[in-house]
């Protein structure tokens, strides 16, 4: 949850993983890595698409 100091807008973000490899979780467990990843998911369309493709089963 965050409050913008510029316009007072409040935003909430949640990321849920249901099939996450253990090695990736250990890598992401550092706060800065997790925060950076979540911010990139919001602002980087290529990373967002790559993440969706990686977690979407081939039959969907």
Compact description:
By secondary structure, the chain is mostly helical. The chain has helices at 22-28, 31-43, 45-55, and strands at 2-3, 10-11.
Indicate the topology.
Layout (H helix, E strand, L loop, with lengths): L1 E2 L6 E2 L10 H7 L2 H13 L1 H11 L5
Antiparallel strand pairs: 1-2
Question: What would you note in describing this structure?
Answer:
- By secondary structure, this protein is mainly alpha-helical.
- Helix content is 52%, strand content 7%.
- It contains three helices and two strands.
- Strands 1-2 form a two-stranded antiparallel ribbon.
- The longest helix is centred in the middle third of the chain and has 13 residues, at 31-43.
- The radius of gyration is 14 Å and the shape is globular.
- The protein starts with a strand and ends in a 5-residue tail after the last helix.
DSSP strand tally: 2
Series of H and E elements: EEHHH
Spatial shape: globular
Strand content: 5-15%
- Cα(first) to Cα(last) distance is 32 Å
Largest sheet: spatial strand order = 1-2
**How many H/I helices?**
3
Mean pLDDT: 77
Enumerate the spans where pLDDT stays under 50 for 5 or more consecutive residues. Answer: none
Q: Supply Rg.
A: 14 Å
Largest sheet: 2 strands, antiparallel
